[in-house]
């Protein structure tokens, strides 16, 4: 159906909006002490559609699965549409990215790529790329791969998923009129490229 919109917002809230009836159908609190803003929030499924449908006693059950990262918070969130309930599970966050937020990110082939980011007061800005494998529940860090430290930037996949474009942002002190292009194959393994 693709009729549900999941919204995460400060302080640590998640809401579900039904696009068919134009109403909020669920509000909940995320199990974190971090303010949720400038964070990563992605569907666990590749195309953003329903991740899992199971039939039990002739009844269809729909489950939506999402991942959220911000600083030291890593959450797997599952929404059960039939029962209108959330389940949350903590995910590991590697020490190198744990101080950061305001990074760019893309999700491709069960991998999330994070670009740059900064600490809470903005005086430490990253030049690294971080890779989280959803399937393996594992982090890999590519140190100093960006040409300059970046925060507040945006990452966009090319239509053929071959390139990531990293646009705009700031370094430690000023706006950066930046457009970097990197090949996805340089950041994903051969196995990750075909999955």
UniProtKB/TrEMBL annotation:
SUPFAM superfamilies: Galactose oxidase, central domain (SSF50965). It comes from the Eukaryota. This is Kelch motif family protein. It comes from Reticulomyxa filosa.
């Amino acid at each position: 159906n693709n009729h549900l919109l999941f919204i995460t917002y400060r302080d640590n809230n998640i809401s579900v909006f039904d696009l068919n009836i134009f109403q909020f159908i669920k509000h909940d609190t995320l199990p974190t002490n971090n303010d949720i803003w400038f964070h990563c929030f992605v569907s666990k499924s590749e195309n953003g559609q329903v991740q899992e449908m199971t039939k039990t006693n002739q009844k269809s059950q729909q489950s939506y699965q999402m991942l959220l990262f911000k600083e030291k918070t890593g959450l797997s969130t599952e929404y059960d549409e039939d029962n209108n309930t959330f389940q949350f599970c903590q995910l590991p966050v590697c020490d190198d990215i744990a101080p950061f937020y305001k990074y760019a990110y893309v999700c491709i082939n069960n991998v999330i790529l994070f670009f740059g980011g900064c600490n809470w007061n903005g005086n430490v800005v990253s030049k690294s790329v971080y890779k989280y494998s959803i399937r393996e529940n594992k982090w890999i860090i590519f140190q100093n791969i960006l040409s300059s430290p970046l925060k507040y930037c945006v990452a966009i996949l090319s239509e053929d998923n071959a390139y990531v474009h990293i646009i705009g942002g700031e370094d430690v002190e000023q706006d950066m009129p930046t457009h970097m292009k990197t090949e996805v194959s340089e950041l994903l393994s051969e196995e990750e490229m075909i999955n």
